[in-house]
Amino acid sequence: MIGWAPDVSSLKLDLYKxxxxxxxxxxxxxxxxxxxxISILEINIAPGKxxxxxxxxxxxxxxxLAFFVGNAHxxxxxxxxxxxxxxxxxxxxxxxxxxxRNYTKLMGDNKxxxxxxxYEVASLRIVEAIVADCVPMIIDDHYxxxxxxxxxxxxxxxxxxxxxxxxxxxxxxxxxxxxxxxxQKRVKQAQRHFVINQPAKPYDMLHMILHSL
Length: 213
What we know:
The protein is an alpha/beta fold. 29% of the residues lie in helices and 14% in strands. It contains 8 helices and 7 strands. The strands form 2 sheets. Strands 4-3-5-6-7 form a 5-stranded parallel sheet. Helix 5 links the parallel strand 5 and strand 6.
């Protein structure tokens, strides 16, 4: 489930063919097999918490079209920064969070949250976006998304390849408000599948993983 797990699990080819691997780095270009293996999303859980707070603004008060902040990990992010880093008021992309700005609140101030991969295909931002009622725009070429045997990701997210990074604003601007509201409603409906509860509840993340198994 961590960075080196795909390599370790494939060292013994006679055993590898019998494995069902549960991986965050569900990269189809690195021998991840969606028909057999299981993809789980990364989730950042602070000590004593089960997830980030919910700070979503009403849709008519979301001042930002799209947002991302994160380190320059990997080729996809370097391309994203080249086109958008601190260059546009509607597509707000930062390598460092500006002073006096709250990351979780910023997630809730956006219509769309950019989720580019880093060194690996998995991204914490996908779950962060979903929990914040923010429609995720996933920028990735080889990511097998979690629970895609039962969830239609096209209904509540946008998925583009890195070749389309320069067109992000153009892509988002042509989305009608009614389409965005429909997608955001489906994000809210999908939230229960990407949260961790204690004890576990039906259809939450733990139940979805067990269903996939």
